[in-house]
Amino acid sequence: MDLKERFLHYVSFDTQSNEASDTFPSTDKQLVLLRALHDEMIALGLTEVSMDKYGYVMGSIPATKGMEDRPVVGFISHVDTAPDMSGANVKPQIIENYDGKDIRLNESLMMTVADFPELSFYKGHTLITTDGTTLLGADDKAGVAEIMTMAEYFMTNPQIAHGKIRIGFTPDEEIGRGVDHFDVKQFGAQFAYTVDGGFEGELEYENFNAASAKLSIQGRNIHPGSAKGKMLNALQIACDLHEMLPVGMCPELTEEYEGFFHLIHLSGSVESAEMAYIIRDHSRELFEEKKRIISAAVSYLNTKIGEEVISLTLKDQYYNMKEQIAPYPELIERAKQAMKMAGVTPLVKPIRGGTDGARLSYMGLPCPNLFTGGMNFHGKYEYCSLTTMYKAMKTIIHLASLF
């Protein structure tokens, strides 16, 4: 299978994860693709191929003769797609030699250059889009396809020198559980790269520190005609709390290293309400300050009301991998070199999000992130450049050889 065929095959699997599930993986349908990848590794001749009870699939490309003493490098991608939009019955559309203009996804939906100006970069590329009814699954089946095509390349070209290469595929990355049970010792690599980025040339080794904040508000519903001094409107309390957070510190008004509070859920009635935020910042100091701000807002409102009607649960999710990558600058320099060998201009930038690599780095496996060629993840405007995907595949081939 070539890269295009692999990618189109993988996106035909519905692998959406589910945050509400208490199983691991969160959905059984992820296991269908993971088993297929396990069997494909075996068919390609990889060694040490395994799939454990959690669904993690691992395999090895053996070192070429005389290269057994080289450091073991790994490449990791996740198979699940985001809960934000359906990943079932994906109908990819292929645009050869893209003309740089607006793209019609279906009769009623356009993807415009005005809304997505980065499209202009891809003029002349072969693009793969959705049909506007589902996400595409480039996050991260583009990375999966690039890694597997790299594996086939090395297995069919044994004369190309390289050390031992480890491959790993994970479930549930999109809901923040991707490496909950990942066995770093079993994986056996000294260093690894997640292949889970977007724009051509992206090389990321800084990411947000991340926390979730869940709030439960207990109101008191009284007939509005006699409510004075008695009613506690949980929805109004939720609004008051949100207004106490710093103005403008939200995703739609921030960029680069700027952090935010992101309200991702609000529901309820006068009697009770639920809120959920994600809290992000690259700076650990500012990250901790944001947690103090929301905690102080809760404390202030409870004191003002005179009883604890708001309960807050704060949970750290992951931390900035930069602290763990900094001692190994060669990981970044080799990635830059590999990109240049593949005809790609390196674009070092912070991730305004997180990857499995962030958590793996704190588990003892330093793990920067590489581009895949996918864009507009998690929704109907998702697309990828097949042209860039080939460059991503060549980058990881060169990178593996540099080790």
TrEMBL record:
Transmembrane segments: none annotated. Keywords: Aminopeptidase, Cytoplasm, Hydrolase, Metal-binding, Metalloprotease, Protease, Zinc. It catalyses: Release of the N-terminal residue from a tripeptide. Zn(2+) 2 binds at residues 139, 174, 378. The keyword Iron does not apply. The active site is at 80, 173 (proton acceptor). CDD domains: M20_peptT (cd03892). The keyword Cell membrane does not apply. It holds the Pfam family M20_dimer. Its main location: cytoplasm. Zn(2+) 1 binds at residues 78, 139, 196. Residues 205-304 form the Peptidase M20 dimerisation domain. It is found in: Cytoplasm. Cleaves the N-terminal amino acid of tripeptides. NCBIfam families: peptidase-T, PRK05469.1, PRK13381.1. This is Peptidase T. It comes from Porphyromonas endodontalis (strain ATCC 35406 / DSM 24491 / JCM 8526 / CCUG 16442 / BCRC 14492 / NCTC 13058 / HG 370). The lineage of its organism: Bacteria, Pseudomonadati, Bacteroidota, Bacteroidia, Bacteroidales. The gene is pepT.
